[in-house]
Design goal:
The protein contains four helices and five strands. It has helices spanning 25-40, 77-95, 100-106, 110-131; strands at 2-9, 14-19, 49-52, 55-62, 65-71. The chain has a five-stranded antiparallel β-sheet with strand order 2-1-5-4-3, with helices on both faces. The radius of gyration is 19 Å and the shape is globular. 20% of the residues are buried.
Length: 148
């Protein structure tokens, strides 16, 4: 399950933060600073998945912008990594070459946040459907198209 999504620049300034589990406002600033410090201090040849306290961080760098996603330990890191890439592709099409300034000043609109929300919710729905046990009691009914 996704806990939060952060977009930060190389200086560690948070450009966008979205939380999907409750975190007290007093803890958010400290959490963001610690998470950003953890990700920005890593070298480019190191893995983009980091064990952090009671969850994992999945991050990806695009030019001067880092996108960091906090997930539970049971989450598939590669699927989150791909989700980040797909979201950036959508932003790139929307802004025709997305930049840090686009995220800072133009991504605050409700439409753009709605797109991020839809990405996260649709992904969670697909994960839920994939993890649901198959139902044995549902039998396909007779088709009127193919009698017999």
């Amino acid at each position: 399950m996704i806990k939060f999504v952060l977009m930060v620049n190389r200086q560690g300034q948070t450009r966008l933060s979205r939380y999907y589990q409750p975190v007290e406002l007093s803890r958010r600033a400290a959490l963001e600073a610690d998470v950003v410090r953890c990700c920005l201090s890593r070298k480019k040849d190191q893995c983009s998945f980091v064990e952090y306290k009671d969850f994992k961080l999945v991050y990806r760098q695009y030019a001067a912008l880092y996108i960091v996603v906090g997930v539970t330990d049971s989450e598939n890191e590669l699927s989150i990594y791909e989700l980040v890439h797909n979201f950036v592709e959508v932003l790139d099409k929307y802004f025709s070459r997305v930049s840090e300034l686009d995220v800072s000043f133009n991504l605050k609109s409700h439409t753009d946040l709605f797109q991020l929300q839809q990405f996260i919710l649709c992904r969670c729905l697909f994960c839920f459907l994939d993890s649901a046990p198959p139902s044995d009691h549902v039998q396909p009914g007779p088709s009127s198209r193919y009698p017999g």
